[in-house]
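Minutes, methods subgroup
Present: GH (chair), OT, SY

1. OT presented the first of two proteins processed in the latest run. Sequence and structure tokens recorded below as shown on screen.
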Amino acid sequence: MKKLFPKGLLAIALCCSAGIRVSAQQKDTVPPTQPPANPPAVSPINIGSPQQYEIAEITVAGTQYLDKSLLLSLSGLSVGDKVTYPGGDQFTKAIQSLWSQRLFADVTIYVTKIEDNKIWLEIGLTEMPRMSSFIFRGIKKTEADDITTKAGLRKGSVITQAMKQNVIGVVHKFYADKGFGNASVKIEERGDTGQVNSKHVIFNVSKGSKVRIQDINIVGNYNLADNKIKKKMKGTKERSRFTLHPDLEQVYVDSLAQPDEFWQTYGFLQPTRALDKLDPYFRFKLFSSAKFNENKYLEDKGKVIGLYNSKGYRDAVIVRDTTYKTHSQNLNVDMQISEGKKYYFGDITWKGNTRYSDSVLTRILGIKKGDIYNLELLEKRIGKQMSQEGGDISGYYMDYGYLFFQIDPVEIGIRGDTIDYEIRLREGPQATIKEVRIAGNEKTNEHVIRRELRTIPGEKFSRQDLIRSNREIANLGFFNPEKIGMNPVPNVQDGTVDIDYTVEEKANDQLELSAGWGGYIGLTGTLGVTFNNFSLRNIFRKETWDPLPSGDGQKLSVRVSSNGKAYRSYNFSFTEPWLGGKKRNQFSVSFYSSYQNPYAYSNYYKLPGDTTTSTDGHFKVLGASVSLGKQLKWPDDYFTLIYSVNYQQYKLKNYNYFGIAGFENGTSNNVNIKLTLSRSSVDQQIFPRSGSNFMVSAQYTPPYSLFNPDKDYSKEPASQQFNFIEYQKYRFNAEWYVPLSRPMGSDNKTFVLKVAAKFGYIGRYNNRTTLSPFGRFEMGGDGLSNFAIYDRDIISQRGYPVYYTSDPSINPENGQPANYSGFTVFNKYVMELRYPFSLNPSSTIFGLAFLEAANGYKDLNEYNPFRLRRSAGIGMRFYLPMFGLLGFDYGIGFDRLQPGGGLKDAAKFTFMLGFEPE
């Protein structure tokens, strides 16, 4: 058998091909990957000049893992092909193709037989070894797992030089991002006798010492202070220094000059280790580990120049910069800046504008002659990058369909320190929406999304309509708000635009399940399910049940709760957000029933001979509500008006809780209508980053007392006074969400400030009636531990238990007074600073710090909006689609602080489930 091209040495094989003699032998006498050592004696075939042969057969030898038919396909050779031998380039291409796969240590083509005009070939391959297993040494398992994922390592993969270099690169980057700039990797390969052509690979990783930035030294900055420049370098922070007594500071400085023998006396073999021990006493980390990252440093240098440009220093440059190690193996950064002179805006003229006049564009731009030169501000005002806030020139044009609009600011003259600009516009035609396509809605029916869109085929394109459509889709709650895509596809030829929306479904149905068995109490627990994307029209189509029919955007909620004989409740509600399917008319219906018997277990704990404790008392509530909400067009289409009709029936038997004499037995009926005007412009529901919520409501029962003006109802027994309840009730809520910094990167994480104000009042129509205990306000607690079934608005306050008086000096722990019947007026103010740790729709997590002030009052005469209970604290929120919103807060009630007491006595831990408490 003749070896054509050993190890790809194609040129040598071609040069010597004219003098080669090809031997023919039996194939089964030849080892698969090596030419025969002693070929059988056969008659030599004299090969003269190159001839053309037809391939009669091709075999592949030496493979252990790879598919032979695939390798034949990769080689480009096949039976029946015409090849030239010797000297044909078909063999060259075949070897190059197989060699480029980087799977082989040797690629050779053998001629095993030549007969007439036919040729028999064998492709001999030596596969590179496989990685039967691998481990990382010198690092934590969690770090090894991260590196394994980033490097794409897996057992059974081919061990190549490229694979090794990839692992080394991943390790260096992984630890460089963590501040270890001197990480190294040594790779060992050990043969694996248990598997053919396999090796066990060991990655020995040394992280080295952590490289931190000790000092950033800046020179040449005459007009901007060091701290302003360093503040801009968010990814390159120096370690902060404690202010200590100068003598202690000098001890530290002197220690740097001590010889190695000094440190070895104290057991430190390496002086740097000793300095690392001392260093924390003089330095601390504040929101930053001061680690050095080369990529972030390069970004920060650009930000420094951007800062100078925004201050008018158009020609500012970093002349030179360097990094070098200190005695403690940390890093110093030296930077020399040339600021140049300060520039100002001169004349700004407009060219190419027909839609808006020069004066209108100048007013929108908001830059006047003589203002400090700021290129970043100029580009922002003209709208170089589309922003959701709008207010820029590009936004004004795109809101009127000018999708093909272009704007270009050009410097036309520099006079001393003044720069003149000409802003050139190419308005183009107004684009008409042609097609709107939606993708990614695997569960939700397309019409549910399409009815929320403001971009309608045939209408003019509008950027605001596009942004509003994004908001409406996000507020459905069915999709990941971070993954909603909007892609306008302009068609320049016909002046139209197609819009592609992409969504990603997320789980949003909720389950509440708990159960227990407690001795004489019996069965306790809760079973509740909420389907937020229900489909009523498919209720009789069995194939749509998964577990219930879904996709039409309706909401169905069922909840059953029991605490043995003491308490049970049933709740059912259904909401159709688009009644009739053509307009946003929200229709809701709900039914609920509850039973409470606080004396159910008195037989188990009352004393012998006690005949006064009743086991028969109870309080029952039966209610129903029907509401219809309509989206308004004025003042704008963020407004919604909701009408609702409500009925509650209360039955009392030996139930003395309300503190009203004579009101322990009887039946009360509450028939009322409620009008609610609300406006919501938040960008999403779970973690709003911008927008606001406003709500004002008025609730009225029929004015029964006005039908009989001669009767004094207040003198009748309570059980008769409250047979038909009458009141008027008003609520006001306002919430604002303000991002404190622009979102950086794709994760959109930013601090958000939430500010809220709330007010409520319930009163009588006249003085001839007594206000019932129902519908009032209960203050304090978390809205869960003080859950009430007697129709009260629970206004939570973190840091306080339920309180019963408007006097902040009275500690709520003193208990409920006998005559307490709830507050008729309240106000509350909230300020929260929020930050999201995860915006993943499967587990949205954010933390918060809060300030709260609130109080309740018995009547308007007692009302004082400045006499408030105050609290502060921190909390966490977790949104899990299956369970809804979970929250934990730790609050300190400042008015609970007692003389000689600590914060612990004034602190309260609260828990919330399923909703944000009021």
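2. SY then presented the second protein from the same run.
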Amino acid sequence: MASLRDLPIDEFIDALSVPCCYINLDGNVLLWNEYAETLFGWGRNEVLHHPLPVVQHLQDALESWSPMLLQYPFSTTAMTPFKHKNGSVVYATAYLQSFSINNYTGYFLAFLPKGFGPLISTEQFNLLHHFQAMIEQSTYYLATNAYGEITEINPLLCGLIGAPDHQFIGRNWFELIHPSFENHPLAEDVLQALTTDRIWNGEMPVRSERHVRNMCWLNLTVVPILSDEGEIVQYTAFGFDVSDKKRLEQEVNYLAYHNDLTGLLNKKGWLRQYSHVLTDVDQGDGLVHVALFDIDRFKIINESFGSRVGNELLLQIKDRAAQFLPETSVMFHPSGGLFGLIFFEQSKEEVFQLLRQLQHELQRPFRIYHHSIMVSISIGCVFYPSATSSLEELYTRAESALFKGKRIGVGTIQFVTKDMDDAFSRQIHIEKALYQALEEKHFYLEYQPKYELKTDTLIGFEALLRWHHEELGQIPPSEFIPLAEEMALIVPINNWVILEAAKQLKAWQQLVDHPLSMAVNISPNQFRSDSFINTLRNIKQQLNLNPSDIILEITESLVMQQTDEIIARMDQIKRLDYRLSIDDFGTGFSSLQYLKSFPVDELKIDKVFLDDWLTSKSHLLDVIVHLGKSLNLHVVAEGVEDQEMLDHLKQTACDSFQGFLYAKPLPPIEVVRLLTDNSQ
């Protein structure tokens, strides 16, 4: 067989048992060997004379390679993601060299993926365009025999470590690892990879006199070199200094898990570091308390004295609390004026006394920049074992107890009671079930009939969302809708409601010979979403339904925001020919001036005004009806449950009503029966 040195350039790269290619300065592939085909999936005919497909943002990469290769004739990348033909990602160390040979000018690339094998022979390695010489000049480099004893080390690496090369020859190269990692499994991971004739790549801490304050890290690639008989004859390791990158990662990691002012663990860091405590309690007979204490009116202190004083106050609170608390406790700092504590082993009575004393200690004046500042703190506390399954749930319950105490008054200590614990458990249960309820069709609709006042004619319905849970039973909308809004599920739920209600209306209109309408409540989040408009368009186009038969009920508080966005969305809806109704009118203190400018069709009077008339015969109900009619709006009274109330409404200009006096919300089958009876 001819020597590799004598082969033409195209045959040379085919003879190399590593994935490699040549590309010109524009990034088009000139040569592509079979190992590159195997690694990346693209055949030679697919890539020749086309831009190199494995590099994302190829033009950006070429722009960065040019100045780099002017400075260094040979360069390597760290373990880098490359694209496979099937869309997956291939991680490999890339070796990059500029060249100009015969008619070829551009770049030579070789790829060594992690765990790649079989490996190149000694001759191939030494002849890979003199890579070894290039590596010695531009990267940290050493070579060992088959037993890991150093046979060669370049001046760059000697200078980094701070010792001449003769001190290293014959020593095991693992002695270069930083002493603090002597018992770390890193060396075992490297050995395990190398003993299976595989390449190892990773970050390794090494001894270095240059890096006194921070540890030195090298990104190393270790390659076993095989003889022609397939036996390992040496190891070659080369890499580059990534200490600055590692230090930056550590700083970012610190900031991610610590409060940047006090240096205490933040919520994320606390959850991460103490995630094991509940398991420890379960395995023993211990007790854990989690308490959150908040500086009352801390925002006012910050605004009055400035953030410099506010920050110093937080630091002094941290220091004073730390001096007082037991050594076994842990303090953390989630945010702003909110601190957290975790107590181990103490009883509920002991924790309560500790928290009372903590309050007393922190209510002594703080002297800050010539200011004397006094604060009060409110505390919420929960203990484990309790009806919870995670540290985050425990935190949430302590937070809820804190807020409940603040509603009572500042300076309170609120422990989670059994009733609160049961309520938290129910809420968590509902939150988990909400994700499945829509997909598994656990929601259903009932329909509240609406009647014309003058004739008692059934003229339409209001669609009402219902949810029956197998374990929890009937869950009222007032309980699950706020949770759905918090969990960003309200938009898909509401879109399902309007679509389902529109389908029912279309079917029921066939059963009667007079117009029927359907009212649907629209949440503020749904009103703002683009998917809502798309749903309205689909209903209009696909159901062949007159959009004016659908009444979209929006809250008065949403209307009164008076933003350009809200008004533009209302105009969008009106252009689609849907009707708009202001629900619960009268409870949001609407201005007549704004009502006149909004494109609404209907006012729906809240039940509170009907009840007020029944108890005091107040004229406010009549005023609201008159207001609506003066604006040429359809006026609806909801919650009519009394004949006297109905008789009075008939004497006003009110147009229609709904309520238990005539009908409660009905399931679809009862609606069909009602419509059939009325038609007869």
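Chair's summary of item 2: Residues 442 and 467 are 6 Å apart (CA to CA).
Next meeting: continue with the remaining queue.
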